[in-house]
Design brief:
Length: 151
């Protein structure tokens, strides 16, 4: 397997710093790092971004996510390994990633569950993580970035 080109944010080097700044801001919103990494991993799984799934699993492990949780994040609804807070974040991540799947992309039930566990700053953090992950997924999947090729 070979990538089509370098990641566009590398080719257009002025793009990488602002993207990294968004990631830094997302991590500064008061949400547990494990929760953010699980959100990143789940969004990347949905989008089929092998580079981000690979990198996301490694980053999540560094944040302390157990192998058991890494192996089951795609089936988080059917496993006992996730807190209610994490479940609310994962549901929000799935809905905000699959915008075209339903008329009301992020319905009140999903939003209210997340808002019941996170304050506005934390919600902003999660939503930024979802958005930046979707951006990277689209850049990487389109250009067929190779899992493990980035450091």
């Amino acid at each position: 397997m070979q990538s089509r080109m370098q990641n566009p944010a590398v080719v257009l080097s002025d793009a990488m710093q602002p993207i990294q700044a968004l990631l830094k801001a997302a991590h500064g919103g008061g949400v547990d790092a494990q929760t953010l990494e699980l959100v990143h991993l789940r969004v990347s799984q949905i989008n089929g971004c092998s580079a981000c799934v690979d990198g996301g699993a490694k980053t999540a492990r560094k944040a302390g996510v157990s192998d058991e949780r890494l192996a089951t994040v795609a089936a988080w609804r059917e496993t006992p390994y996730f807190s209610e807070e994490e479940r609310a974040a994962l549901a929000l991540a799935e809905a905000a990633t699959r915008l075209a799947d339903r008329p009301d992309a992020v319905g009140d039930e999903i939003w209210d569950a997340a808002a019941g566990h996170f304050d506005e700053k934390q919600l902003a953090s999660i939503i930024l993580m979802i958005g930046v992950t979707n951006l990277f997924n689209r850049l990487n999947a389109t250009t067929r970035q190779i899992a493990g090729a980035w450091g």
